[in-house]
Specification:
alpha/beta, 10-stranded mixed sheet, Fe-S_cluster_assembly_SufBD, SUF_FeS_clus_asmbl_SufBD_sf, SUF system FeS cluster assembly SufBD core domain-containing protein
């Protein structure tokens, strides 16, 4: 489905399982679904960008998966900005505010792909601002696999909120690849609202040229036997490149027997590049298994030596090691065709 400047331009909901609704909020004709949707499309703690999206979103797009429905076909949402500017001197940025709500009822399953991309390589310097919000609600035992690819123009600003509400026994898996935009920030907020809930966050950011890649995540575990894993990997490739990771996991008092892990690894290829990392694990419960770790470094010289000792020249060895660093996350994208496209993009940028 194509979403142009926040507007849904194509409708392929007929290709999905029977009973699944995909369309603008204004076209909802079910009072029951409308009531459910209205419970979640609300303001979020007064956040400026969230509120701006609430004011500017033309017509929120709703994805509703009924109870027990397993959607076999991935739902691919492609976001396009047509109002970008090519003049670097202008202080005006055209802005779009796409908003999507994915509501998966009890026992439902869906694979959602969000892809932010320009139409061609010749437009990669276009200037515009995308201010997006995606809300995902999982009922009891529901499962959502969420792939998020951000490869917009290197002259663009990209700000995105992803808010996830998980009920008992639900599974949410996020794989994010972010390599576009001059300024890119992704705010992720996940809250477990029931026991036996699983959350898995895998993210890879590549910062080249004068890019800033910024990721802020907050995961709140409120109930017993919650499980979470977070892996964040980042490459800062040039002297003016910057990256930020601020990851918070809070295990509240009722979340006994929780198993939570967080790991962030950053590859700094230029000594003047900048990486700011702030892992934060707050534990109030006492019967838990939790861990977190952070590392920032250049390539391991022993790994380079291993390649060279087997007849591989230093440049080829370095390229292979740098690419494989991010490939660990890329390979978690479920769709093979999308994985190939992303790998091709990352190789070109590196």
């Amino acid at each position: 489905l194509a979403i142009v400047d926040g507007y849904l331009m194509t409708d392929r909901s007929s290709e999905l399982s029977e009973g699944v609704f995909v369309g603008p909020l204004s076209s909802l004709n079910s009072e029951a679904i409308s009531s459910r949707v209205s419970d979640y499309i609300t303001s979020f703690n007064g956040d400026l960008f969230w509120c701006l999206n609430g004011v500017g979103a033309p017509d929120p797009i709703v994805v509703h998966v009924p109870a027990g429905c397993i959607v076999e076909t991935p739902l691919h949402l492609r976001y396009i900005s047509m109002s970008g500017r090519d003049d670097d001197d202008s202080r005006i940025l055209p802005v779009s505010n796409p908003r999507v709500l994915v509501l998966v009822e009890k026992g439902g399953e869906i694979n959602v792909v969000e892809e932010y991309r320009d139409q061609g390589d010749d437009e990669r310097r276009r200037r515009y601002w995308t201010n997006a919000v995606t809300e995902i609600v999982l009922g009891d035992g529901a499962k959502v696999r969420h792939s998020y690819v951000q490869a917009q123009s290197s002259g663009a600003a990209h700000v995105k909120w992803t808010s996830v509400h998980q009920e008992s026994g639900s599974v949410y898996q996020l794989v994010e690849i972010s390599s576009g935009g001059k300024l890119s920030r992704h705010n992720v907020h996940v809250q477990q609202h029931g026991p036996d809930t699983v959350t898995d966050l895998s993210t890879f950011h590549l910062s080249t040229g004068d890019q800033l890649q910024d990721l802020h995540t907050q995961l709140v575990l409120d109930h017993p036997r919650g499980f979470s894993r977070q892996l964040h990997k980042c490459i800062v490739a040039h002297s003016e490149s910057q990256a930020v990771f601020d990851g918070s996991i809070r295990v509240n008092r009722r979340a006994q027997q929780t198993d939570a892990g967080q790991l962030t690894r950053s590859l700094l290829l230029e000594s003047r590049g900048t990486v700011n990392v702030k892992p934060n694990l707050q534990i109030v419960a006492d019967d838990v298994k939790c861990s977190h770790g952070a590392a920032i470094s250049d390539l391991d010289k022993s790994q380079l030596f291993y390649f060279q000792a087997r007849g591989i020249d230093a440049e080829t060895a370095r390229k292979a090691l740098v690419f494989s660093f991010g490939e660990e996350v890329i390979q978690r994208i479920p769709e093979a065709s999308l994985r190939k496209k992303i790998s091709r993009d990352i190789r070109r940028l590196l």
